[in-house]
Design goal:
Radius of gyration: 16 Å
Number of strands: 7
Number of helices: 1
Shape: globular
Length: 118
């Protein structure tokens, strides 16, 4: 089953507005979103109604933050060009670019050292 959810969803959580810090602006796919400084990327995405953060490599099943403490790895996203980053462990910062991860991350395989010393 393939689920294509790229449009904004109603936010699962809302901020109480008591954040003492200034908001941070970042990009998620083609959207500009704001979040309180110091929150994780996962919290920022959930506050802004983002649906699935990624899809699984085998079945393309949608996944989003689940444990919010770095255990489940369901919140993997691409952050500033680096794939497979745990959104629940990385705090937001001004200007960062976050992308939804579709399937397996593209790994760049180096040809250096392929002979393994032979």
């Amino acid at each position: 089953m393939h689920t294509k959810t790229t449009s904004p969803c109603p936010a699962l959580f809302t901020s109480n507005g008591d954040s003492p810090s200034d908001p941070v602006t970042l990009r998620f796919d083609d959207r500009t979103i704001t979040a309180p400084a110091g929150v994780s990327i996962a919290a920022a995405l959930l506050l802004n109604g983002v649906g699935p953060f990624r899809t699984t490599p085998v079945t393309s099943a949608p996944r989003a933050a689940y444990c919010m403490m770095g255990v489940c790895f369901d919140c993997l996203v691409e952050v500033d060009g680096m794939p497979s980053r745990q959104a629940c462990l990385i705090p937001v910062r001004e200007g960062m670019i976050v992308r939804r991860q579709q399937g397996a991350s593209a790994l760049e395989i180096s040809t250096e050292g392929e002979n393994h010393g032979r």
